[in-house]
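Design job #97: recover the sequence.
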């Protein structure tokens, strides 16, 4: 690892806990020194030592157009020149709300916030306020941001550090969160049979991206929709990661499920801090100032961030955008799997739209237990070898990866060739 990255990491640790502002970035799971990045353009980014990488993290999903897309940058510059923040309504927020509601039939109304965590936290409060119930169902290994109710058996950094429930969460609060196995219909039916009348909401990542990628079984999503309707619980699709990433109608369109509430983030901010939650009118009308459920934010609907999001959403509506992204992501997975097979390495890969999972395991997993069965040491070895070769994957075996429209077929071929060389010497 470079001298400059090492120096910056040492400096960072003096006044920033762990040297990072979000835990997975610290490379604790894979070991070594995190890269400090100075510049990004298209599919590539450059670290503090001047080394260039093909980027398969994409800022953890937002950069569906790649780094510093000229039209997104121009939109940000124009909005910034007109004022960074007003703490008062602006027209661009209406444009964003109208666009989101037009693209997603499940949204009658939407509220903008500044992060995915804020979106999920607010959606949970809203569901509780709407139903007058406290209990919440989530699934082991799903991550919905770092608010108290949701940090119980969570994914992402919680799995990376082997402690799926956070310190500092009051037991009195955590007791309202029921944690079930992802893709397990029988367990979900059992939970509703026993607690149906007290369940306010089920929150789910319709495609999980926070314990690596796990695709849902259609029967699981169908059962969830049916049970929530039957028992009067609010179905919340956390599409912070999947929103506009798996397709223009998000995971809900892809799997044909209409949730009651949806949370969004990442792509809708195009790399700037934007989150949103929205859904049925009768639920959304419970939010202040219309209703009794309070939620607010100084920078909510920030004009510069919204400009980046609108520019991004405009560009991804071009015909064929998601088909091309899906094809490229699939080509990456197929290429890596073929390279591993050629050299007898136990490995599998899968993608949904522009997100993908890599597993050092014979078959893609369907549950938390199966994810835990992946060879983490093999992943870490692969990660470091690819990093050295200039290919940046998520520094954890428990995160999904992302391809952008800026990745060319040549980029993908280059990454597959690098992996092939690594598997050959495995
Ligand atoms: N929790 C994010 C990935 N699922 C990581 C965020 C970050 O480190 O930026």
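Job complete. Output follows.
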């Amino acid at each position: 690892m470079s001298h400059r990255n090492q120096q910056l990491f040492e400096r960072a640790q003096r006044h920033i806990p762990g040297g990072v502002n979000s835990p997975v970035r610290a490379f604790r799971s894979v070991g070594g020194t995190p890269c400090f990045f100075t510049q990004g353009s298209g599919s590539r980014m450059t670290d503090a030592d001047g080394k260039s990488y093909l980027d398969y993290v994409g800022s953890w999903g937002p950069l569906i157009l790649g780094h510093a897309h000229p039209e997104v940058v121009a939109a940000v510059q124009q909005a910034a020149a007109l004022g960074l923040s007003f703490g008062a309504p602006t027209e661009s927020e209406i444009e964003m709300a109208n666009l989101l509601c037009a693209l997603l039939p499940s949204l009658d109304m939407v509220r903008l916030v500044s992060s995915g965590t804020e979106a999920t936290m607010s959606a949970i409060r809203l569901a509780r306020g709407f139903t007058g119930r406290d209990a919440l169902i989530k699934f082991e290994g799903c991550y919905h941001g770092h608010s108290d109710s949701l940090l119980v058996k969570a994914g992402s950094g919680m799995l990376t550090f082997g402690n799926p429930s956070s310190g500092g969460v009051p037991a009195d609060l955590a007791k309202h969160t029921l944690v079930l196995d992802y893709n397990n219909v029988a367990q979900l039916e059992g939970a509703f049979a026993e607690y149906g009348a007290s369940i306010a909401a089920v929150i789910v990542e319709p495609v999980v991206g926070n314990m690596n990628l796990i695709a849902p079984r259609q029967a699981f999503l169908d059962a969830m929709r049916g049970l929530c309707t039957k028992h009067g619980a609010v179905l919340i699709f956390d599409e912070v990661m999947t929103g506009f990433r798996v397709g223009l109608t998000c995971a809900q369109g892809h799997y044909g499920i209409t949730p009651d509430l949806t949370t969004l983030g990442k792509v809708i901010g195009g790399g700037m801090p934007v989150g949103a939650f929205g859904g049925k009118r009768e639920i959304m009308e419970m939010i202040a100032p219309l209703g009794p459920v309070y939620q607010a934010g100084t920078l909510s609907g920030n004009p510069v961030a919204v400009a980046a999001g609108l520019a991004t959403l405009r560009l991804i509506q071009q015909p064929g955008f998601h088909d091309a992204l899906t094809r490229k992501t699939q080509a990456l997975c197929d290429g890596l799997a073929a390279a591993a097979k050629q050299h007898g390495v136990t490995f599998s890969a899968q993608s949904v739209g522009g997100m993908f999972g890599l597993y050092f395991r014979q078959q893609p997993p369907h549950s938390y237990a199966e994810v835990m069965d992946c060879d983490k040491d093999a992943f870490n070895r692969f990660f470091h070898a690819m990093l050295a070769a200039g290919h940046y994957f998520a520094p954890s075996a428990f995160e999904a990866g992302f391809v952008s429209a800026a990745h060319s077929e040549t980029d993908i071929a280059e990454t597959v060739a690098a992996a092939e060389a690594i598997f050959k010497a495995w």
